[in-house]
Write a structure and sequence with these properties.
single chain; little secondary structure; Ribosomal Protein L15, Chain: K, domain 2; three-stranded parallel β-sheet; 6 strands
Length: 171
């Protein structure tokens, strides 16, 4: 086999479609653009949201009014009443709650103070409400606040902070 013997596999190379080159080409006369109208003309087509002059969908939708904090941390919540189901002296860790399907690892955990607590527990969570804190401590339980590392995006329009090389762990 020599260089001049090489050719693509059958069906791998297709000839370019020659638009508007007469009736025999299959795309003659109007060149595949139909008869008339705005889309048959040369130049750019109407914008993506154009609906033929009708008030378009993006204008018909209501505005999202007010301030929406993009960096708000959304918490998963568990009330102290739900902790009553556990046996006395139990250590409630985040890993245990994830394994039991109570919470997921996507969001931090906050313990709220709704209901009554009668069990003496050691509770691990990212945050506690003031009422939950007093109720757990009132029955002799202990609180362990676990830090939550928030992966923050860059607030500027510049390069993404997450894509920058991180410092080594031993530094």
């Amino acid at each position: 086999m020599k260089l001049h013997d090489l050719k693509p596999a059958p069906g791998a190379h297709r000839a370019r479609k020659r638009v508007a080159r007469g009736p025999g080409s299959g795309t003659g006369k109007t060149g595949g653009k139909g008869m008339m109208g705005q889309k048959a003309r040369s130049g750019p087509n109407p914008y993506r949201t154009f609906e033929g002059g009708q008030n378009r969908m993006v204008r018909r939708m209501p505005y999202l009014r007010g301030f929406k904090n993009r960096w708000r941390v959304e918490y998963q919540v568990i009330n102290v009443a739900q902790l009553n189901e556990l046996p006395d002296g139990e250590v409630v860790t985040i890993e245990r709650l994830v394994a039991s399907g109570e919470i997921s690892t996507a969001q931090p955990l906050k313990i709220l103070g709704e209901g009554e607590l009668t069990r003496r527990l050691t509770v691990h969570a990212h945050k506690f409400s003031a009422s939950a804190r007093t109720k757990i401590e009132a029955v002799g339980g202990t609180l362990v606040e676990v830090p939550w590392d928030v992966a923050r995006r860059s607030r500027s329009r510049g390069p993404n902070q997450a894509m920058r090389p991180r410092a080594s762990a031993d530094a």
